[in-house]
Amino acid sequence: MEKVEKILQDVLNAGIALFRAGEGSVASAVADVKKTFEELKTKGAADNSESAVKLRKILDDIVKQAGDLNNKASGTYGDSVKQLQDLYAKASAEIEKIVPKEQLDQVKGKVDELSKAIQAKVEEVTKTVKEKTGGTGAGPTAV
């Protein structure tokens, strides 16, 4: 009977180690994404070009207006959605006036690149966890 208990204890310990290994991979992937985001955030904050300053002002105004809309609890949901859509359209138009199309395309490309990198990391971690746990759950969802 002691042998069975020893085997069960060994299986439990191996399972704990396996779980921790998968947990470490996920934590590492999250840390990588956070680090990349912080680097991008720092680079963006350091950009004090005229277009960056204008863009920040526009977004600050939009956030303020959106907050004001949110605080107007007496308005109807539909009116608020319409106003938010109008604000978004206005912001998009202003951004397109200030930022050259090739820069917008470049930013969109970088965002797509970052999304693909994040998705690849998620898939890599998911695969690693499945391999280590023998899991057969559903695949990762799109980021």
UniProtKB/TrEMBL annotation:
UniProt superkingdom: Bacteria
Record-linked NCBIfam families: phas_rel_Lepto
Protein name according to UniProt: Methyl-accepting chemotaxis-like protein
Annotated source species: Leptonema illini DSM 21528
